[in-house]
Amino acid sequence: MLNRLLLDDLLRWKQKTCRKPVLIDGARQVGKTFLVERLFGPASFRKVHSLDFRREPGLCALFADSLDPREIVEKIELAVDSSVDLERDLIFFDEVGDCQRALDSLKYFDQDLSGAYVCASGSNIGLLQSFPVGSVHSLELFPLGFEEFLMGHENPRLLQAYRGRSRGRIEHGHLWSALLDHYFVGGMPAAVQGWMDRSSRLRERVQTVTSIHRDLLRGFARDFGKYAGKLHAQHIDAVWRNVPRQLARDQDGSVRRFRFKGVIPRKRGYRDLAGPIEWLHSAKLVRKCYPVKGSPRAPLMAHVRHNMFRLYFFDTGLLGHAAGLTYEDQRSQGVSYKGFIAENFVQNELGVRVAYPTFGWQQAQAEIEFLHRCQDGEIIPVEVKSGARTRARSLRSFIHRYSPRRAVKLVGSRGGKDGGVIETWPLYDAQFLREI
After folding, report:
1. What percent of the chain stands above pLDDT 70?
2. Confidence of residue 330 (pLDDT cuts 50, 70, 90)
3. Global pTM?
4. Distance (Å, rounded) from C-alpha 338 to C-alpha 427?
5. Is the peptide bond before 357 cis (omega within 30 degrees of 0)?
6. Please, are residues 146 and 428 in contact by the beta-carbon 8 Å criterion?
7. What residue ranges do the domains of the chain occupy?
8. Which CATH number fits domain 6-140: 3.40.50.1780, 2.60.120.10, 2.40.160.20, 3.40.50.300?
9. pLDDT score for 268
10. Which of 40, 184, 314, 392 is most exposed, with the fewest beta carbons within 10 Å of its own?
């Protein structure tokens, strides 16, 4: 059974004496229902009372006449034919975005029944017109990151070596091999579960993951029409398909900012594509990184242009599939494509475990993939190089201009000191930036 790090956040929420309803946001199929109904609920409560508004749209009728939480609880008891113990049971509104009134009711659970354990989840929360601001404790679930991928290996020594940052040759060899597998599999729970089935041969597991990736991408495309309307859905689909093409096009260096021209016929600029891009971003399917020009200083968001950004896929495994990369491609790490996969991986690790949105740096021909704000407030450069032998001209240019006390280079080796302020880390250590 796959474990999730967000479980710790839910356990801390449960321990609060006065709690707001918790709302778990996230893209489709990232495991929100599994997290609540299989991991969190059974281990923490007497019973979980689940209402799935996508599977049973008729459940919305429970909220039609009143949003008083006590009346709603009574109606839930009738609907599920079971008593609800507010001190020992969890009420779970699944796919709450499909029932606006249920989402609205969270405000009144917060005001009038704050002692109850109420959890909601949804995959289209960012697309809704109304949201109970200030009345919920918000969490976001992503595809499995590298640490969670290792947790699924059932190899406690490898996980311990990773968490303890033991980077000897043997440990690095195993961790690097796991990273290449993670590039192919990604973090969608269905794909990871299929990959971890050790009863099957490697070829069968590869075929299983490939099939899951194909079905997931088709499912996301169908969602465009369901939530966006026919014409807008075509534009969303065009942008969605163009993201991996643009990422794969930048093979000789850093990923460039997203180009608007040529994505949709007769559409040339950000204003023409803003709607589809923001839809995909609100649905958690793409992630943004904003390049900062000149001297980086806080707050970084104040120094970006909102029509200039790099776009990444929310899952590296789906990106590789969309770009036509096979398992053998990912394992061999051909120089013509490994760079954008590594960069997308780092973007996702930073977005999940460090901070989002992410930022980069650009000045003339010099470009740094990411900037990181340390705990003491200093902004340092983070360069991504997929190979073991790398040059760092842009990184040294940044150091020469701004004299940071430290800089990090993420590379395809076990790392070490480059001399001076540069620290070289293996790529899979990206999430540990949060510790500095």
Report:
1. 96
2. very high
3. 0.93
4. 12
5. yes
6. yes
7. 6-140, 146-435
8. 3.40.50.300
9. 87
10. 392
